[in-house]
Amino acid sequence: MYYDTAITSFSVGTLKRHVTTASGEDSIVKTDCSGYNFYIDQLTHEIYNTDSLPYGIDASMAVVSISSKNSGTIVLKNINSDTLTYYSSTDSLDFSVPRELRVYNANGDYAAYTVNVNVHQEEADSFMWSRKADNQVLASLEGMKAVCNAGKIYVFGTDGNALKIYMTSMTDGNSWQEISNSANLPAEAYNHVMAHDGTIYILNQGTILTSTDAQNWTELAKTNLTQLLGYSSSTMYGMNGNAIMSSTDNGVSWSEDLLDTDASYLPTSNISFMARTDESVDNADRLVLVGNRIANNETTAVVWGKLAEYSSSADSDPWMYYPPVKDITYKLPTATKLVALNYYNGIIAFDGKQFYYSEDNGITWPIESDRTIYIPDTFSANTTNFAFVKDDNNYLWMIMGASGQVWRGRHCELGWKTYQTSFK
Q1: pTM of the predicted model, to two decimals?
Q2: How many CA atoms lie less than 13 Å away from 417 in the CB half-sphere?
Q3: Does the pLDDT at position 423 exceed 50?
Q4: Which of 84, 149, 171, 185 has CA atoms 20 to 30 A from the CA of 35?
Q5: Where in this chain does the record put each DUF6242 domain (predicted)?
Q6: Which CATH architecture has domain 7-116?
Q7: 344 in the Ramachandran plot: left (φ > 0), alpha (ψ -120 to 50) or beta?
Q8: Alpha carbons within 13 A on the beta-carbon side of 370
Q9: How far, in Å, CA of 290 to CA of 146, rounded?
Q10: Is the pLDDT of residue 190 over 70?
Q11: b vs e for 4-13, b when ≥16 Cβ sit within 10 Å of the residue's Cβ?
Q12: How confident is the model at residue 2 (pLDDT cuts 50, 70, 90)?
């Protein structure tokens, strides 16, 4: 009920912002915040900005502009009492905490709104690492691969003799539970595991097995695959050694994809597969394949790409080989072990000691960029034995052999809350 009146608009103006200068000194600058939209939910009577004001903004002395329906009288409830103060467009008001606004009609009836002026509490491009408890069981593994599935991080590895499987909640990372190898999978099976949409897939001598918990396995199909790659939005991908294979029935049957270059240029080890929606093409994914190829002492990683279009009228594009370009400065080097995955709007690669980030689908890989991730000071590098995975909350996990270190981190912006902006 609005009692013939309601808050119809809310905005802020120029606010003070605390910043740190290049010399490291604290300073206060004025920042125009009038371009930040505030949304009004007339059902829940909430007012808020979905795009938070910049880090360092002082919302305790805000000059705001508020309008009401039918010229209703606007008042602001005191933070610590029931005292009401008439709103004035020239007053500096404290919106550093949620505040109650009221709008009264001519009969004295009112509607109350809760106002949240959201301000970033951290810089968008800052990256925060959290070190979990070192784990000696993980440290003892001689090889490992991690996947995220249904809110859990699974590490598949070998102790040199048998397959080992460990699991932790993606909100934990300190305690790990061992999962029995009930399917008697061989030690090398850890290299052939992937996860998608609540299901873990593992390849054992051409046979694909599936599980939801890494303990109870069901045979899916017998294939000629030698490697599982991953999923696009509608297709599963794998390799059979000299070809890229695809399946549109969740791994039951497979067909060979077209290549624009000889198959001898396909990667043979440390293969990572990435798929993301291509916003520039309707109903399509951009696919990237990254890995190493043992040939002619190559020093640059192998990259292939494909535009996968799913509309009925679309042509079937081949996989394209991206040959190393001599004049390109930022190349992805070969590594003893290399893992790449989607992160932000690009691809991040990790070799156990250094990160590389590509924003052009794998063509260039600068170390320094807007998405730079710095290695923690106490990090123990290992270029031969580690696991690298992203969880469902956009956290990156580094799980290191030998030291047993477990690290979790993300850019702060990826953890920011999203708000409703459409009201019907």
Answers
A1: 0.78
A2: 11
A3: yes
A4: 84
A5: 10-117, 123-418
A6: Sandwich (2.60)
A7: left
A8: 8
A9: 17
A10: yes
A11: ebbbeebebe
A12: very low
Taking the alpha carbons of 120, 123, 124, 130 in that order, is the dihedral positive or negative?
A: negative
* Domain at 127-415: CATH architecture: 6 Propeller (2.120)
Cα dist. 262→108, 177, 303 in Å? 80, 44, 14
Are the C-beta atoms of residues 245 and 256 closer than 8 Å to each other? Answer: yes
* Cβ contact 33:91 at 8 Å: no
- Per-residue model confidence as pLDDT tens digits over 248-292: 999 999 999 999 999 999 999 999 999 999 988 888 999 999 999
Residue 43: partners with Cβ closer than 8 Å, 6 or more residues away: 423
Give the amino acid at 305.
Answer: G
Domain range list for the chain: 7-116, 127-415
Residue type, 256: E
Q: Which has the closest alpha carbon to 54: 88, 30, 22?
A: 30
Tokens coding 334? 């070969």
- Joined tokens for residue 81: 């009492």
List of E strands, 261-401: 269-277, 284-292, 302-309, 320-321, 339-343, 346-350, 355-358, 386-390, 396-400
